[in-house]
Amino acid sequence: MTKTLNNKAWFLVLPVFLIVAFSAVLPLMTVVNYSVQDTFGNNQFFWNGVGWFQELLDPTTDLGGRFFDSLWRTLLFSAIILLIEVPLGILVALSMPREGWTVALSLVLMALPLLIPWNVVGTIWQVFARGDIGLLGWLVNHLGIDYNYTGDPLDAWITIVVMDVWHWTSLVALLCYAGLKSIPDAYYQAARIDGASRWAVFRTIQLPKMRRVLLIAVLLRFMDSFMIYTEPFVLTGGGPGNATTFLSIDLVKLALGQFDLGKAAAMSLVYNLIILAICWVFYTIMTNVDAKNERAEA
Amino acid sequence: MARITLDHLAHAYKPDPQTPQDYALKEINHVWSQGGAYALLGPSGCGKTTLLNIISGLVRPTRGRILFDDRDVTDLATEARNIAQVFQFPVVYDTMTVRENLAFPLKNRRVPKDRATKRVEEIAHLLDLTPVLSRKASNLTADMKQKISLGRGLVRPDVAAILFDEPLTVIDPHLKWQLRSTLKEIHRALDITMIYVTHDQTEALTFADKVVVMHDGAVVQTGTPEELFVRPAHTFVGHFIGSPGMNILPCRVEGAAAYLGKERVALQRGYLNLPKSERIELGIRPEFVRLQPRGAGLPVWIRRIDDIGRARIARVDLDGRTIAASVPENLSVSGDEASLHLDPRHIHIYADGHLVAGEPLEGRAA
């Protein structure tokens, strides 16, 4: 077979190229542009080189200090979210019905939290958790537990974590459910014939078959939680103090609150690179597990 | 190891079965004797798999009982039944090696390690899996995976029976023969009851000592391959087994003679009490219908002649009825006129699909 060469085919790539250029490359370059300049206002900029980056990555400076504080907060938040939502999502998926009219019902119920706009979620929980008029806050306080998410950093964290679990666990559950549904009945039947225990069925059939969707679930939940902004902004506004000021909230404070465009641009670039790097690590680990399996067979 | 008895067994997938049509499996009484090699033969959707799943306990029957020897196991779960089953499509545990896969049923039943290892090696040897024992099971070919599934079925030495649900569907044709003879050898060596479900008559007839033919949720005949061939108890069996299948011709029977249209065919037995209202048919296998030059016998028109390798089969026309007949080797056919000779010993009469025995004729030559 001979390859047909036709350079007109490049025109077919043009629309994508343009869209990517205007939606991603140009805005990114603007940010890069800001990150290497400083200004004293009046729209006058002058060259600052890698100054902002040096300051940002040095924890002893003001900028670096607050950057690393929010970074650790965000990483801790993502870790907690993954540790709760992934196992919980798997458990929920395992206990969802497989057939009958309850399937549709449970799917709709599971999808409901995902349909709520993020700032509405924040508002719902802001009211729900209030000590005076919120059902949850009032109840907890009347049970004799001192709870006040606007004053106590731990309470604020718990509230945000519970809110995120409430909002997003169903995404993990739905993905896992799809993975479980794709397992043919014969596997379960064979496992019964082989006398496998419930735990063995989970370990040897369900978990391996869910591995791919779990990879997607972990990636999605990590990225979303690492970039979380709207809900904690509405709920706590980053407080009390800076207790729930995650990277994204800090970035907005820096860029729009203080209008430090250079610092904010440098921070957002580093933020972006961290996300890319962590995703790449996740992805490599997961695909390596696959590859290792295949190599073991060869 | 046990004798398996199906006692008035029936199953419907609908919750409240009323008419016989609601039953996927109509009432069955059957005994699978210990150590037999059985085939369960029938077209897709005739209830074979349902029956198999009832024996293994994956499906609970709507009515009736299952006995292993004299123990009623109807309500026992699959795990408690001591039965092995191999499914149509390969099931392997992806994360385990082939060795772990084969050992899995033993491990779950807490068989001591040294005995399990020995057993796994034996089975791997029988199925030619020894070279891949240490490999992961996930990326092997479908053939190999199905061999692993077979191996997991065979690995427990103490099972009451091994059930095979069309296990060779995904296997390459040349391997099918080999695996089938392997199964046969294993059956001889282990003295375990094996029930083999298939819709392929060759598979059934070569594997089994006894073939159970199912049609439309009911067992229509149980017998050796020879019995099924020579004396089909139902027109379905005659048609389904044999290639080409039996000629089934609507006819009228009067005493010891059948009339195909206006042509008279002499019978060896008398049929005096045939029910009037039912469909009467004459059945004869193409092997016992001989084509000969126009003369004595039924006058027919030849439509075409197929060479099917070991024989030639003529499709002929008798008053609008199509009949398959065998063409003797030395007969050269010219023109399209011929006659048929029907071997009277192999003519069967069916009423509403079922074989009618007829009465022996006394003192009269047929």
Describe the structure in brief.
With 298 residues, chain A is mainly α. In chain A, 74% of the residues lie in helices and 2% in strands.
Word description of this protein:
The complex is a heterodimer of chains A (298) and B (366). Chain A has 298 residues and is mainly α. In chain A, a hairpin with a 5-residue loop joins β1 and β2. Chain A contains 12 helices and 2 strands, in the order αββααααααααααα. In chain A, α11 runs antiparallel to α12 (261-297). Chain A has one domain (60-297): MetI-like (MetI-like fold, Orthogonal Bundle), CATH 1.10.3720.10. Chain B is an alpha+beta fold and 366 residues long. Chain B folds into 2 domains: 4-240, P-loop containing nucleotide triphosphate hydrolases (Rossmann fold, 3-Layer(aba) Sandwich); 247-360, Nucleic acid-binding proteins (OB fold (Dihydrolipoamide Acetyltransferase, E2P), Beta Barrel). In chain B, 23% of the residues lie in helices and 34% in strands. Chain B contains 8 helices and 22 strands. Chain B has a 6-stranded mixed beta sheet, with helices on both faces. Chain B has a 5-stranded antiparallel beta sheet with strand order 15-19-16-17-18, with no helix packed on it. A 4-stranded antiparallel beta sheet of chain B has the order 2-1-4-5, with helices on one face. The longest helix of chain B has 18 residues, at 173-190. The chains are: A mainly alpha (298), B alpha+beta (366). The A-B interface holds A 184, 186-187, 189-190, 192-197, 200, 203-205, 208-209, 293-294, 296-297 and B 53, 56-58, 77-79, 83-85, 87-89, 91, 93-96, 104-105, 108-109, 135-136, 138-140, 149, 152-153.
